[in-house]
Amino acid sequence: MEKDIEIGIFGGTGIYDSGLLENPQEINMDTPYGKPSDVITTGVFNGRKIAFLPRHGKKHTIPPHMINFRANIWAFKQLGVTRIIAPSAVGSLKEELKPGHFVLPSQFLDFTKARKGSFSEEGRVIHISVAEPFCPEIQSSILKVASNQNMQIHKDCTYVCIEGPRFSTKAESKLFRTTGADVIGMTLVPECQLSREAQICYASISTVTDYDVWAEKPVTAKEVLETLSKNVERTKKVLAELIGKIPKTRSCSCAKALEEAEF
Question: Which of 17, 156, 182, 212 is catalytic?
Answer without folding.
Answer: 212
